[in-house]
Amino acid sequence: MHLHIAIPAADISVQEILIARLEELGYDGFQQEGNHLDAYVQEEKFNAAELEELLSRWQLGYTRQGVPEKNWNEEWEKNFQPVIIGDFCAVRASFHAPVTNVAHELVITPKMSFGTGHHATTYMMIKAMQHLDLKGKSVLDFGTGTGVLAILAERLGAAEVLAIDYDPWSIDNARENITENHIQRVRVEQMDTIPDNPLFDIILANINKHVILKDLPRMKQQLKSGGVILLSGLLHEDYQDVENEALKNDLPISERLSEGSWICLKLVK
What we know:
Elements: E1 2-6, H1 12-24, E2 29-32, E3 36-40, H2 48-55, E4 62-65, H3 72-77, E5 83-85, E6 89-92, E7 104-107, H4 120-129, E8 138-142, H5 148-155, E9 160-165, H6 168-180, E10 186-190, E11 200-206, H7 209-221, E12 223-235, H8 239-248, E13 253-259, E14 262-268
């Protein structure tokens, strides 16, 4: 289903907040224009009452229409060039030319899963990982999407990486990208909760506020003493709630990155 949401003020921050909240409701494709947002959701996941409650915050309306089944995320991603983070890392799709002047080049072909570096949240996670010591470490990538962060973790020297996601599309896509990048130490598993074993040195979670707040106690439980959690998928307006939950779990926030309306947080046990 295709929803057309008019935003008269052409406010990009409103569009980004809407995208974050709609993702939590199961929407899986977006196209931003100057004065409107197109959003795509499967018919069975559409809930008019939830959508109208969300849009009422800005007194916005919408129109909807059915659309043929199509991979909207892939169509959206193809409009972008490779993402380059200084001389540290480049993320490109298989249909892009190689990028040679970076330390790490990752080939991530987008399908229905999230994470190629184009979105600010993934970009900030990659930027933050540049300053982590991953050599010989055990890593959990919670909500792996395309597998981009798990792949980078191995490239940065992680001894073992467990990449998990609840979505079968993401699992298949992550495995394809792991093969494409000749990765050997990443294990991909379909699951929606953090497993009881093993403990991890580093946990990467680029998800959303709802999941982060719910699972932060379990992240702490499965994190080794002195371990690090990187969180993103968060808006500036989410900061206070996340900080409160982090402090409740004795996980102080040591660093905060921002990009547009989005933030990335580093927590230390």
